[in-house]
User: What shape does this take?
Amino acid sequence: MISFREKSLWVSLLVSAVIASIYGDSVYTLMFLQPNTSLDATTTLIMRITIAFIILEVALHIALAMSQQEDANTPEDERERYHRLTANNAGYWVLSVGIVSCVIQQMINSNIDFDAQNSYTNYALAPIELKLVLIFWLSEVIRFGTEIYYCRKES
Assistant: This one.
């Protein structure tokens, strides 16, 4: 029997993966198919994805809690706390490396003159907000996946 917390992790992982893939597809479209996008298009994309993520997470966790009311309020034990902290550490490293990479790329881009129009220049000149949100969702997927891995490893 899978515990409520593990089911909650699976829900969060699946929602994050689905939202990240939709976001990634939209970012691909903005960067490579429509390279000169406006700030409004970027802002709208980020807002829509964020709102969809919040609505899906809340709705699915409410449904999950209603189906397992007795297990939903149990306190977190030491093993679960250890798994959560280990997964947070993995997600933190992905987030940190991604953010530093974006900042370094932006610094390099400010010193390079891009004349050619190819896929690298489209990616390099894409708004940093798009890249940072993508890195955030990647770190969340890594975090949820790592925690599920440790939960399954001990079962």
Observations:
- The chain has a mean pLDDT of 84.
